[in-house]
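ok so i was messing around last nite and threw this chain in just to see what happens. nothing serious, just curious
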Amino acid sequence: MTRSIHVRLDEPALAALDIMRAESVTDSEAVRTALREAAARRRTRSSIREEVRALATDKLDREEMRVIRGQMAGLAPNPDR
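result:
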């Protein structure tokens, strides 16, 4: 199913459209591509946020990270030596 929409583009959007046109892409294909790419970025950011939330509440992971930080601190050069 296809759907037609009408949009008003501001100057930055027009400049972006000009970049797409330079690649011989139609206005419609440029908008479809931009929407797909924006949706993919949002899905990725959403997935990362969910993963961060899950890790933040994972007690075992937090304890492991505490141990690793302690080990790394022991490896760091000490300027007082």
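not much to say yet. The chain has a mean pLDDT of 90.
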